[in-house]
């Protein structure tokens, strides 16, 4: 009878819980889920920043192209003098563009933009000089320092005295 009483008391006071193995499995599953979520968040952030820089580089390249078109329309002769048969390079590392910079090699530390990671240059080359087909080739290059190294956007455009 005493045995029966102890069994009844033990059955009433039995506490149900998780075993150590169940707790470890739960913690492992939660850890995998949290690590995966963090990895996806970081990848999304990296992709967003990269797209933002690509968009800015496109803007900087097109704004220089538009400015060059305006300069060509103002005075073809002056525009033509800015180019050479071997090509002249100009660094346009400011925004907005107000004036022609000096021709020459672009310094590596001359950056602009927000954040200041961009460099922008154009190489102007005269094609078929002295002929009726004379034109100026403009190769615009915008470079920036991304998370994976130096990246760049290039636009190649030819200008003629009379555009149709």
How many β-strand stretches? 4
Q: Counting H and I runs of at least 4 residues, what is the number of helices?
A: 3
Q: How many separate domains?
A: 1
| Structural class by SSE content | alpha+beta
Strand order of the largest sheet: 1-2-3-4
Give the mean pLDDT: 88
Uncertain segments are none
Principal-axis shape: rod-shaped
Instruction: Give the helix level as a range of percent.
Output: 40-55%
- N→C terminal distance: 112 Å
Order of helices and strands: HHHEEEE
Q: Write down the Rg.
A: 33 Å
Q: What does it look like?
A:
This protein has 164 residues and is α+β, with helices and mostly antiparallel strands. It has one domain (19-160). 45% of the residues lie in helices and 23% in strands. It is built from three helices and four strands, in the order αααββββ. The chain has helices at 2-13, 20-74, 76-81; strands at residues 88-91, 118-127, 135-146, 149-160. The protein has a four-stranded antiparallel beta sheet, covered by helices on one side. It starts with a helix and ends with a strand.
Give a brief description.
The protein is an alpha+beta fold and 164 residues long.
């Amino acid at each position: 009878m005493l045995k029966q009483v102890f069994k009844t008391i033990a059955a009433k006071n039995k506490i149900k819980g998780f075993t150590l193995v169940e707790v470890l499995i739960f913690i492992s599953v939660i850890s995998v889920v949290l690590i995966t979520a963090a990895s996806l968040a970081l990848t999304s952030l990296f992709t967003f920043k990269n797209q933002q820089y690509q968009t800015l580089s496109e803007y900087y390249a097109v704004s220089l192209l538009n400015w060059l078109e305006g300069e060509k329309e103002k005075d073809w002769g002056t525009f033509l003098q800015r180019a050479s048969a071997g090509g002249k390079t100009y660094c346009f590392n400011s925004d907005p563009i107000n004036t022609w910079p000096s021709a020459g090699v672009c310094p590596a530390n001359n950056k602009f933009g927000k954040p200041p990671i961009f460099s922008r240059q154009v190489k102007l080359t005269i094609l078929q000089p002295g002929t009726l087909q004379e034109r100026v080739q403009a190769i615009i290059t915008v470079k920036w320092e991304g998370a994976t190294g130096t990246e760049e956007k290039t636009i190649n455009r030819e200008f003629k005295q009379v555009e149709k």
